[in-house]
What does this fold into?
Amino acid sequence: MKVNRICCIGAGYVGGPTMAVIALKCPHIEVTVVDTNSNRINSWNGPLEDLPVYEPGLKEVVGESRGKNLFFSNDINLAIERADMIFMAVNTPTKKEGEGAGMAADLKYIEACAKTIAKVAKSDKIVVEKSTLPVRTAEKIKDILGKYGHDEVQFEILSNPEFLAEGTAIQDLFKSDRVLIGGDETDSGQKAVQALVDIYAKWIPIEKILTTNVWSSELAKLASNAMLAQRISSINSLSALCEKTGANIDELSKAIGMDHRIGPKFLKASVGFGGSCFQKDILNMVYLCKYYGLEEVAEYWHQVIKINDYQKNRFAQKIIDDLGGDLRGKKIAILGWAFKANTNDSRESPAIYVTKKLVDSGANVKIFDPLVSLSIIMRDIEDFGININACSICNNIEECINAVDLVAILTETLAYKDLGKDLSIYDGRGINKEAKYTIGK
Ligand code: UDX
Ligand code: ADP
It folds into this structure.
Protein backbone atom coordinates (compact mmCIF):
# COMPACT_ATOMS: atom_id res chain seq x y z
CA MET A 1 0.00 0.00 0.00
CA LYS A 2 1.39 3.39 -1.01
CA VAL A 3 0.92 6.39 1.23
CA ASN A 4 0.45 9.68 -0.63
CA ARG A 5 -0.96 11.86 2.11
CA ILE A 6 -0.30 11.96 5.83
CA CYS A 7 -2.24 13.89 8.46
CA CYS A 8 -0.82 14.41 11.95
CA ILE A 9 -3.18 15.43 14.75
CA GLY A 10 -1.24 17.41 17.36
CA ALA A 11 1.31 20.11 16.48
CA GLY A 12 3.38 19.94 19.66
CA TYR A 13 6.88 18.85 20.65
CA VAL A 14 6.39 15.42 19.08
CA GLY A 15 4.07 16.06 16.10
CA GLY A 16 5.82 19.19 14.77
CA PRO A 17 9.45 17.97 14.56
CA THR A 18 8.53 14.38 13.55
CA MET A 19 6.34 15.49 10.64
CA ALA A 20 8.89 18.10 9.51
CA VAL A 21 11.49 15.33 9.20
CA ILE A 22 9.10 12.90 7.42
CA ALA A 23 8.20 15.68 4.94
CA LEU A 24 11.88 16.45 4.33
CA LYS A 25 12.84 12.82 3.77
CA CYS A 26 9.74 11.90 1.74
CA PRO A 27 9.15 14.78 -0.70
CA HIS A 28 6.59 12.66 -2.59
CA ILE A 29 4.28 12.57 0.46
CA GLU A 30 2.04 15.51 1.37
CA VAL A 31 2.16 16.00 5.14
CA THR A 32 -0.45 18.15 6.93
CA VAL A 33 -0.18 18.86 10.67
CA VAL A 34 -3.38 19.98 12.41
CA ASP A 35 -4.24 21.09 15.93
CA THR A 36 -7.27 22.41 17.81
CA ASN A 37 -5.04 25.20 19.13
CA SER A 38 -5.15 27.69 16.26
CA ASN A 39 -2.52 29.96 17.84
CA ARG A 40 -0.09 27.08 17.66
CA ILE A 41 -0.87 26.46 13.98
CA ASN A 42 -0.48 30.18 13.24
CA SER A 43 2.95 30.14 14.89
CA TRP A 44 4.01 27.11 12.83
CA ASN A 45 3.00 29.13 9.74
CA GLY A 46 4.73 32.31 11.00
CA PRO A 47 8.39 33.44 11.03
CA LEU A 48 10.86 30.55 11.38
CA GLU A 49 12.49 32.34 14.35
CA ASP A 50 9.24 32.11 16.35
CA LEU A 51 8.11 28.50 15.85
CA PRO A 52 6.16 27.28 18.91
CA VAL A 53 8.73 24.57 19.64
CA TYR A 54 12.41 25.40 20.06
CA GLU A 55 14.73 22.66 18.81
CA PRO A 56 18.21 23.10 17.34
CA GLY A 57 17.97 22.52 13.56
CA LEU A 58 14.15 22.58 13.47
CA LYS A 59 13.70 25.90 11.69
CA GLU A 60 16.01 24.79 8.87
CA VAL A 61 14.06 21.53 8.38
CA VAL A 62 10.68 23.32 8.47
CA GLY A 63 12.02 26.05 6.14
CA GLU A 64 13.02 23.41 3.60
CA SER A 65 9.56 21.78 3.19
CA ARG A 66 6.93 24.21 4.47
CA GLY A 67 4.58 25.25 1.67
CA LYS A 68 5.97 22.50 -0.61
CA ASN A 69 4.84 19.21 0.95
CA LEU A 70 4.59 20.26 4.62
CA PHE A 71 1.49 22.17 5.74
CA PHE A 72 0.15 23.35 9.10
CA SER A 73 -3.61 23.77 9.09
CA ASN A 74 -6.65 24.43 11.28
CA ASP A 75 -8.91 22.40 9.01
CA ILE A 76 -8.73 19.10 10.90
CA ASN A 77 -11.61 17.41 9.06
CA LEU A 78 -10.28 18.13 5.58
CA ALA A 79 -6.80 16.85 6.47
CA ILE A 80 -8.27 13.63 7.92
CA GLU A 81 -10.51 13.08 4.92
CA ARG A 82 -7.65 13.43 2.44
CA ALA A 83 -5.08 11.34 4.32
CA ASP A 84 -4.16 7.67 3.83
CA MET A 85 -2.32 7.59 7.12
CA ILE A 86 -3.16 9.56 10.29
CA PHE A 87 -0.70 10.04 13.16
CA MET A 88 -2.09 10.81 16.61
CA ALA A 89 0.44 13.01 18.41
CA VAL A 90 -1.74 14.59 21.08
CA ASN A 91 -0.79 14.97 24.72
CA THR A 92 -1.51 12.26 27.28
CA PRO A 93 -0.94 13.94 30.67
CA THR A 94 -1.34 12.23 34.04
CA LYS A 95 -5.01 12.09 35.04
CA LYS A 96 -6.03 14.85 37.46
CA GLU A 97 -9.36 13.43 38.60
CA GLY A 98 -11.47 10.29 38.54
CA GLU A 99 -10.26 6.70 38.73
CA GLY A 100 -6.46 6.51 38.62
CA ALA A 101 -6.02 10.26 39.35
CA GLY A 102 -2.35 11.19 39.84
CA MET A 103 -1.15 8.00 38.15
CA ALA A 104 -2.99 6.79 35.05
CA ALA A 105 -2.65 8.56 31.69
CA ASP A 106 -5.53 10.81 30.78
CA LEU A 107 -6.73 9.55 27.42
CA LYS A 108 -9.39 12.20 26.82
CA TYR A 109 -7.41 13.87 24.00
CA ILE A 110 -6.72 10.52 22.32
CA GLU A 111 -10.37 9.53 22.63
CA ALA A 112 -11.51 12.86 21.17
CA CYS A 113 -9.07 12.39 18.33
CA ALA A 114 -10.31 8.85 17.59
CA LYS A 115 -13.93 10.08 17.59
CA THR A 116 -13.13 12.83 15.10
CA ILE A 117 -11.33 10.38 12.81
CA ALA A 118 -14.24 7.93 13.02
CA LYS A 119 -16.86 10.53 12.17
CA VAL A 120 -14.93 12.19 9.35
CA ALA A 121 -13.22 9.28 7.55
CA LYS A 122 -15.02 8.09 4.43
CA SER A 123 -12.19 5.91 3.09
CA ASP A 124 -9.85 3.32 4.69
CA LYS A 125 -7.16 4.76 6.97
CA ILE A 126 -4.07 3.61 8.80
CA VAL A 127 -4.15 5.21 12.26
CA VAL A 128 -0.77 5.50 13.98
CA GLU A 129 -0.36 5.98 17.73
CA LYS A 130 2.57 8.36 18.10
CA SER A 131 1.72 9.66 21.57
CA THR A 132 2.91 7.52 24.48
CA LEU A 133 0.02 5.41 25.64
CA PRO A 134 -0.70 2.74 28.20
CA VAL A 135 -0.36 -0.74 26.83
CA ARG A 136 -3.60 -1.99 25.19
CA THR A 137 -4.83 1.51 24.24
CA ALA A 138 -5.11 0.39 20.62
CA GLU A 139 -8.01 -1.78 21.75
CA LYS A 140 -9.82 1.28 23.07
CA ILE A 141 -9.15 3.23 19.88
CA LYS A 142 -10.42 0.30 17.83
CA ASP A 143 -13.66 0.28 19.87
CA ILE A 144 -14.20 4.01 19.30
CA LEU A 145 -13.46 3.77 15.57
CA GLY A 146 -15.84 0.80 15.32
CA LYS A 147 -18.60 2.49 17.29
CA TYR A 148 -18.57 5.91 15.57
CA GLY A 149 -17.07 5.04 12.16
CA HIS A 150 -18.86 4.55 8.83
CA ASP A 151 -19.62 0.85 8.25
CA GLU A 152 -17.74 0.50 4.97
CA VAL A 153 -14.52 2.13 6.25
CA GLN A 154 -11.64 -0.10 7.47
CA PHE A 155 -9.11 1.11 10.02
CA GLU A 156 -5.74 -0.43 10.84
CA ILE A 157 -4.10 0.71 14.06
CA LEU A 158 -0.33 0.83 14.43
CA SER A 159 1.82 1.78 17.40
CA ASN A 160 4.90 3.81 16.47
CA PRO A 161 6.19 5.41 19.69
CA GLU A 162 8.50 8.40 19.49
CA PHE A 163 11.90 8.09 21.16
CA LEU A 164 13.21 11.59 20.45
CA ALA A 165 14.57 13.59 23.36
CA GLU A 166 13.85 17.31 23.48
CA GLY A 167 16.82 19.48 22.66
CA THR A 168 18.18 16.83 20.26
CA ALA A 169 14.92 15.99 18.46
CA ILE A 170 16.10 16.60 14.91
CA GLN A 171 19.33 14.70 15.38
CA ASP A 172 17.39 11.83 17.05
CA LEU A 173 14.90 11.72 14.17
CA PHE A 174 17.63 11.74 11.51
CA LYS A 175 19.68 9.04 13.21
CA SER A 176 17.31 7.00 15.34
CA ASP A 177 18.78 4.12 17.36
CA ARG A 178 15.68 2.22 16.26
CA VAL A 179 12.22 2.81 14.87
CA LEU A 180 9.57 0.66 16.49
CA ILE A 181 6.38 -0.27 14.65
CA GLY A 182 3.74 -2.49 16.22
CA GLY A 183 0.84 -3.87 14.22
CA ASP A 184 -1.80 -6.58 14.15
CA GLU A 185 -0.57 -9.99 13.08
CA THR A 186 -3.34 -10.21 10.45
CA ASP A 187 -2.70 -9.78 6.71
CA SER A 188 -4.14 -6.27 6.62
CA GLY A 189 -2.23 -5.39 9.81
CA GLN A 190 1.04 -6.48 8.27
CA LYS A 191 0.31 -4.49 5.08
CA ALA A 192 -0.19 -1.39 7.19
CA VAL A 193 3.07 -2.07 9.04
CA GLN A 194 4.86 -2.37 5.71
CA ALA A 195 3.42 0.97 4.53
CA LEU A 196 4.98 2.69 7.54
CA VAL A 197 8.25 0.74 7.23
CA ASP A 198 8.51 2.03 3.63
CA ILE A 199 8.28 5.62 4.87
CA TYR A 200 11.04 5.29 7.50
CA ALA A 201 13.19 3.19 5.15
CA LYS A 202 13.74 6.37 3.09
CA TRP A 203 16.39 7.39 5.66
CA ILE A 204 16.65 4.78 8.43
CA PRO A 205 18.69 1.60 7.73
CA ILE A 206 16.27 -1.30 7.48
CA GLU A 207 17.98 -3.29 10.28
CA LYS A 208 17.07 -0.48 12.67
CA ILE A 209 13.37 -0.72 11.90
CA LEU A 210 11.88 -3.16 14.37
CA THR A 211 8.39 -4.59 13.89
CA THR A 212 6.49 -6.19 16.77
CA ASN A 213 2.96 -6.79 17.90
CA VAL A 214 1.01 -3.70 19.06
CA TRP A 215 1.29 -4.45 22.78
CA SER A 216 5.07 -4.92 22.76
CA SER A 217 5.47 -1.63 20.95
CA GLU A 218 3.21 0.28 23.36
CA LEU A 219 4.92 -1.21 26.41
CA ALA A 220 8.45 -0.80 25.02
CA LYS A 221 8.04 2.97 25.07
CA LEU A 222 6.98 3.05 28.74
CA ALA A 223 9.69 0.54 29.66
CA SER A 224 12.46 2.44 27.82
CA ASN A 225 11.63 5.65 29.64
CA ALA A 226 11.37 3.80 32.96
CA MET A 227 14.81 2.20 32.47
CA LEU A 228 16.42 5.56 31.58
CA ALA A 229 14.82 7.31 34.55
CA GLN A 230 15.82 4.42 36.80
CA ARG A 231 19.50 5.03 35.94
CA ILE A 232 19.16 8.69 36.93
CA SER A 233 17.41 7.85 40.20
CA SER A 234 20.07 5.21 40.91
CA ILE A 235 22.93 7.67 40.45
CA ASN A 236 21.01 10.41 42.31
CA SER A 237 20.45 8.11 45.28
CA LEU A 238 24.19 7.45 45.34
CA SER A 239 24.91 11.19 45.25
CA ALA A 240 23.44 11.45 48.76
CA LEU A 241 25.73 8.65 49.94
CA CYS A 242 28.72 10.37 48.32
CA GLU A 243 28.05 13.55 50.30
CA LYS A 244 28.11 11.56 53.56
CA THR A 245 31.19 9.48 52.77
CA GLY A 246 33.53 11.82 50.88
CA ALA A 247 33.27 9.82 47.66
CA ASN A 248 32.84 12.03 44.58
CA ILE A 249 29.77 11.35 42.42
CA ASP A 250 31.47 12.23 39.11
CA GLU A 251 34.34 9.87 39.87
CA LEU A 252 31.89 7.19 40.94
CA SER A 253 29.79 7.68 37.81
CA LYS A 254 32.87 7.43 35.57
CA ALA A 255 34.10 4.30 37.34
CA ILE A 256 30.70 2.62 37.05
CA GLY A 257 30.04 3.73 33.47
CA MET A 258 33.37 2.42 32.15
CA ASP A 259 32.09 -1.10 32.69
CA HIS A 260 30.87 -1.78 29.17
CA ARG A 261 28.00 -3.84 30.56
CA ILE A 262 26.70 -0.67 32.21
CA GLY A 263 27.87 2.12 29.86
CA PRO A 264 28.36 5.85 30.58
CA LYS A 265 25.05 7.44 29.52
CA PHE A 266 22.29 8.69 31.84
CA LEU A 267 24.59 8.45 34.86
CA LYS A 268 24.91 12.19 35.49
CA ALA A 269 23.77 13.11 38.97
CA SER A 270 21.42 16.07 39.01
CA VAL A 271 18.72 17.92 40.90
CA GLY A 272 16.37 15.33 39.37
CA PHE A 273 14.86 14.50 36.03
CA GLY A 274 12.05 16.53 34.54
CA GLY A 275 10.24 16.66 31.21
CA SER A 276 6.91 15.51 29.97
CA CYS A 277 7.76 11.80 29.76
CA PHE A 278 9.66 10.13 32.58
CA GLN A 279 7.39 10.78 35.55
CA LYS A 280 4.19 10.46 33.56
CA ASP A 281 5.22 7.21 31.88
CA ILE A 282 6.47 5.56 35.07
CA LEU A 283 3.30 6.52 36.95
CA ASN A 284 1.35 5.12 34.05
CA MET A 285 3.29 1.85 34.26
CA VAL A 286 2.89 1.71 38.05
CA TYR A 287 -0.86 2.10 37.58
CA LEU A 288 -0.92 -0.69 35.00
CA CYS A 289 1.00 -3.00 37.36
CA LYS A 290 -1.47 -2.25 40.16
CA TYR A 291 -4.37 -2.85 37.78
CA TYR A 292 -2.99 -6.30 37.01
CA GLY A 293 -2.43 -7.01 40.73
CA LEU A 294 1.39 -6.78 40.55
CA GLU A 295 1.89 -4.80 43.78
CA GLU A 296 5.62 -5.56 44.19
CA VAL A 297 6.39 -4.63 40.60
CA ALA A 298 4.40 -1.39 40.98
CA GLU A 299 6.31 -0.49 44.16
CA TYR A 300 9.69 -1.24 42.53
CA TRP A 301 9.09 1.29 39.74
CA HIS A 302 7.35 3.81 41.99
CA GLN A 303 10.59 4.09 43.95
CA VAL A 304 12.22 5.71 40.88
CA ILE A 305 9.78 8.61 41.24
CA LYS A 306 10.18 8.78 45.00
CA ILE A 307 13.98 9.17 44.70
CA ASN A 308 13.42 11.91 42.13
CA ASP A 309 11.12 13.80 44.52
CA TYR A 310 13.66 13.22 47.30
CA GLN A 311 16.44 14.70 45.18
CA LYS A 312 14.53 17.88 44.21
CA ASN A 313 13.56 18.35 47.82
CA ARG A 314 17.09 17.62 49.09
CA PHE A 315 18.56 20.35 46.86
CA ALA A 316 16.10 23.01 48.04
CA GLN A 317 16.45 21.89 51.67
CA LYS A 318 20.24 22.22 51.48
CA ILE A 319 19.83 25.88 50.53
CA ILE A 320 17.30 26.46 53.30
CA ASP A 321 19.51 24.78 55.93
CA ASP A 322 22.63 26.68 54.83
CA LEU A 323 20.74 29.97 55.16
CA GLY A 324 19.70 29.12 58.70
CA GLY A 325 16.23 27.72 58.06
CA ASP A 326 14.50 31.04 57.40
CA LEU A 327 14.62 32.62 53.95
CA ARG A 328 12.68 35.76 54.80
CA GLY A 329 14.51 38.76 53.37
CA LYS A 330 16.75 36.54 51.19
CA LYS A 331 17.01 36.98 47.44
CA ILE A 332 17.79 33.94 45.27
CA ALA A 333 18.64 33.80 41.55
CA ILE A 334 17.11 30.86 39.69
CA LEU A 335 19.12 30.19 36.53
CA GLY A 336 17.23 27.89 34.17
CA TRP A 337 13.48 27.25 34.12
CA ALA A 338 13.24 24.58 31.37
CA PHE A 339 13.68 20.94 32.42
CA LYS A 340 17.05 20.83 30.66
CA ALA A 341 19.20 22.93 28.30
CA ASN A 342 18.30 23.59 24.64
CA THR A 343 14.54 23.42 25.06
CA ASN A 344 11.78 25.92 25.85
CA ASP A 345 9.74 23.17 27.55
CA SER A 346 9.24 23.51 31.32
CA ARG A 347 6.91 20.56 31.91
CA GLU A 348 7.82 18.84 35.22
CA SER A 349 10.93 21.01 35.45
CA PRO A 350 12.78 20.62 38.79
CA ALA A 351 13.20 24.43 38.71
CA ILE A 352 9.48 24.83 39.42
CA TYR A 353 9.55 22.54 42.48
CA VAL A 354 12.73 24.09 43.87
CA THR A 355 11.35 27.61 43.38
CA LYS A 356 8.10 26.71 45.12
CA LYS A 357 9.90 25.33 48.15
CA LEU A 358 12.23 28.34 48.40
CA VAL A 359 9.39 30.84 48.05
CA ASP A 360 7.26 28.92 50.57
CA SER A 361 10.18 29.29 52.99
CA GLY A 362 10.08 33.07 52.60
CA ALA A 363 12.59 33.79 49.79
CA ASN A 364 12.24 36.25 46.94
CA VAL A 365 13.42 34.80 43.64
CA LYS A 366 14.71 36.25 40.39
CA ILE A 367 14.28 33.90 37.42
CA PHE A 368 16.11 33.75 34.08
CA ASP A 369 16.07 31.24 31.21
CA PRO A 370 17.22 32.22 27.70
CA LEU A 371 14.62 30.03 25.94
CA VAL A 372 11.51 30.02 28.12
CA SER A 373 9.12 32.90 27.49
CA LEU A 374 7.78 35.20 30.19
CA SER A 375 4.24 33.93 29.57
CA ILE A 376 5.21 30.28 30.17
CA ILE A 377 7.09 31.11 33.39
CA MET A 378 4.08 33.14 34.60
CA ARG A 379 1.73 30.27 33.72
CA ASP A 380 3.86 27.79 35.72
CA ILE A 381 4.06 30.14 38.71
CA GLU A 382 0.29 30.39 38.72
CA ASP A 383 -0.38 26.68 38.06
CA PHE A 384 1.91 25.59 40.90
CA GLY A 385 0.55 28.12 43.38
CA ILE A 386 3.87 29.94 43.80
CA ASN A 387 3.45 33.40 45.36
CA ILE A 388 3.80 35.67 42.33
CA ASN A 389 4.70 38.68 44.47
CA ALA A 390 7.90 36.92 45.53
CA CYS A 391 9.02 36.30 41.91
CA SER A 392 10.58 38.55 39.30
CA ILE A 393 11.51 37.42 35.80
CA CYS A 394 14.71 38.78 34.29
CA ASN A 395 15.88 39.43 30.73
CA ASN A 396 19.51 38.38 31.12
CA ILE A 397 21.92 36.62 33.47
CA GLU A 398 23.58 39.80 34.74
CA GLU A 399 20.26 41.28 35.84
CA CYS A 400 19.30 37.97 37.47
CA ILE A 401 22.45 37.47 39.56
CA ASN A 402 22.76 41.10 40.56
CA ALA A 403 22.33 41.73 44.32
CA VAL A 404 21.27 38.21 45.30
CA ASP A 405 22.32 36.16 48.34
CA LEU A 406 22.62 32.98 46.36
CA VAL A 407 22.46 31.54 42.83
CA ALA A 408 20.74 28.21 42.07
CA ILE A 409 21.62 26.61 38.71
CA LEU A 410 18.78 24.39 37.50
CA THR A 411 19.55 23.66 33.85
CA GLU A 412 22.91 22.83 32.29
CA THR A 413 22.79 25.89 29.97
CA LEU A 414 26.45 26.57 29.19
CA ALA A 415 26.13 30.31 29.81
CA TYR A 416 25.80 29.50 33.54
CA LYS A 417 29.21 27.87 33.62
CA ASP A 418 31.36 30.90 34.41
CA LEU A 419 29.63 33.27 36.76
CA GLY A 420 32.60 34.40 38.85
CA LYS A 421 33.99 33.39 42.22
CA ASP A 422 32.35 35.94 44.47
CA LEU A 423 28.86 34.41 44.26
CA SER A 424 27.35 31.77 46.48
CA ILE A 425 26.43 29.18 43.82
CA TYR A 426 24.32 26.03 44.36
CA ASP A 427 24.65 23.91 41.27
CA GLY A 428 21.96 21.31 40.59
CA ARG A 429 23.46 20.35 37.24
CA GLY A 430 27.15 19.96 38.02
CA ILE A 431 28.42 22.45 35.44
CA ASN A 432 29.83 25.30 37.51
CA LYS A 433 33.34 24.84 38.86
CA GLU A 434 33.03 27.67 41.36
CA ALA A 435 29.89 26.24 42.97
CA LYS A 436 29.76 26.24 46.74
CA TYR A 437 27.44 23.23 46.67
CA THR A 438 27.20 20.66 43.87
CA ILE A 439 25.11 17.53 44.28
CA GLY A 440 27.18 14.56 45.37
CA LYS A 441 30.41 16.41 46.12
C1 UDX B 1 13.05 11.34 27.28
C2 UDX B 1 13.72 10.15 26.58
O1 UDX B 1 15.13 10.33 26.56
C3 UDX B 1 13.18 10.01 25.17
O2 UDX B 1 13.70 8.85 24.54
C4 UDX B 1 11.65 9.90 25.21
O3 UDX B 1 11.11 9.84 23.92
C5 UDX B 1 11.05 11.10 25.96
O4 UDX B 1 11.64 11.21 27.26
P1 UDX B 1 13.37 13.99 27.29
O5 UDX B 1 12.45 13.98 28.46
O6 UDX B 1 13.09 14.92 26.17
O7 UDX B 1 13.43 12.53 26.61
O8 UDX B 1 14.85 14.31 27.80
P2 UDX B 1 16.08 13.48 28.40
O9 UDX B 1 17.30 13.92 27.69
O10 UDX B 1 15.83 12.04 28.46
O11 UDX B 1 16.19 14.07 29.88
C6 UDX B 1 15.18 13.88 30.86
C7 UDX B 1 15.61 14.46 32.18
O12 UDX B 1 16.64 13.68 32.77
C8 UDX B 1 16.15 15.89 32.10
O13 UDX B 1 15.60 16.64 33.16
C9 UDX B 1 17.64 15.70 32.23
O14 UDX B 1 18.28 16.84 32.72
C10 UDX B 1 17.71 14.53 33.19
N1 UDX B 1 18.97 13.78 33.13
C11 UDX B 1 19.34 13.14 31.97
C12 UDX B 1 19.77 13.66 34.27
O15 UDX B 1 19.44 14.21 35.32
N2 UDX B 1 20.93 12.92 34.21
C13 UDX B 1 21.33 12.26 33.08
O16 UDX B 1 22.38 11.60 33.11
C14 UDX B 1 20.51 12.38 31.92
P1 ADP C 1 3.79 16.39 23.06
O1 ADP C 1 5.00 16.74 23.86
O2 ADP C 1 3.28 15.00 23.35
O3 ADP C 1 3.94 16.66 21.60
P2 ADP C 1 2.20 18.84 23.28
O4 ADP C 1 1.32 19.28 24.41
O5 ADP C 1 3.40 19.64 22.93
O6 ADP C 1 2.59 17.31 23.62
O7 ADP C 1 1.33 18.70 21.95
C1 ADP C 1 0.10 18.08 21.83
C2 ADP C 1 -0.81 18.93 20.93
O8 ADP C 1 -2.01 18.18 20.65
C3 ADP C 1 -1.27 20.25 21.54
O9 ADP C 1 -0.86 21.32 20.71
C4 ADP C 1 -2.82 20.13 21.60
O10 ADP C 1 -3.49 21.35 21.31
C5 ADP C 1 -3.09 19.09 20.52
N1 ADP C 1 -4.37 18.38 20.68
C6 ADP C 1 -4.85 17.77 21.79
N2 ADP C 1 -6.04 17.19 21.54
C7 ADP C 1 -6.34 17.41 20.23
C8 ADP C 1 -7.43 17.04 19.35
N3 ADP C 1 -8.45 16.30 19.78
N4 ADP C 1 -7.39 17.47 18.08
C9 ADP C 1 -6.34 18.19 17.62
N5 ADP C 1 -5.27 18.56 18.38
C10 ADP C 1 -5.27 18.19 19.67
